[in-house]
Design goal:
Layout: E1 2-7, E2 29-31, H1 35-49, E3 55-60, E4 73-75, H2 81-91, E5 104-108, H3 114-122, H4 128-135, E6 142-146, H5 149-152, E7 156-157
Parallel strand pairs: 4-5
Antiparallel strand pairs: 1-3, 2-6, 3-7, 5-6
Length: 159
């Protein structure tokens, strides 16, 4: 399969120490199987960083590795309460060390207003089922989190 990463710069090598904490699935390298989503993310990164140019880097990944026991994988097929609580735990984790043991996590992209919705849930203003509904990204595009060196080594950059 081909996966895409959108950024404000060319990615020559993946360095997990450069990854941000407090993301949906933890501190790691994020990709998508939807090229347009990666392009949108690249444009967004340029705006947030106020530097660089939108760049989409593509990688080959042998998807049989998701099922053969080579990697520890967590999948969220659709937004669920477990998915929402997983995102909440990771968004609240300010450590570089992830609070889960997965090499790869795959699941729906949370809506851009995720921080606002998580705060509403934490303040008791909405129930968990409402949080799930509010976090659901309309297009339900998947994101692929690669959070360990073991997983990163399985990505092969396309030239």
């Amino acid at each position: 399969m081909i996966l895409y990463h959108g950024s404000n710069m060319e990615i020559n090598s993946i360095d997990l120490l450069q990854c941000q904490v407090g993301k949906d699935f933890g501190c790691g390298f994020y990709l998508t199987d939807f090229e347009a989503q990666a392009k949108d993310m690249a444009v967004r990164r340029v705006k947030l960083a106020r530097k660089g140019t939108p760049v989409v880097t593509s990688y080959f990944f042998d998807e049989t590795l998701l099922n053969d026991g080579t990697l520890s994988v967590k999948r969220f097929e659709i937004p669920t309460e477990e998915w929402a609580l997983f995102i909440l735990a990771n968004r609240n984790n300010e450590e570089r060390k992830n609070n889960h043991v997965y090499d790869v996590v795959i699941g729906p992209v949370a809506d851009d207003g995720v921080a606002f919705q998580l705060e509403r849930y934490e303040q008791g203003l909405i129930e968990l089922d409402i949080l799930v509904k509010e976090l659901t990204y309309r297009k339900l595009n998947n994101q692929y989190f690669f959070g360990t060196e073991k997983a990163i080594l399985k990505l092969n950059k396309r030239l």
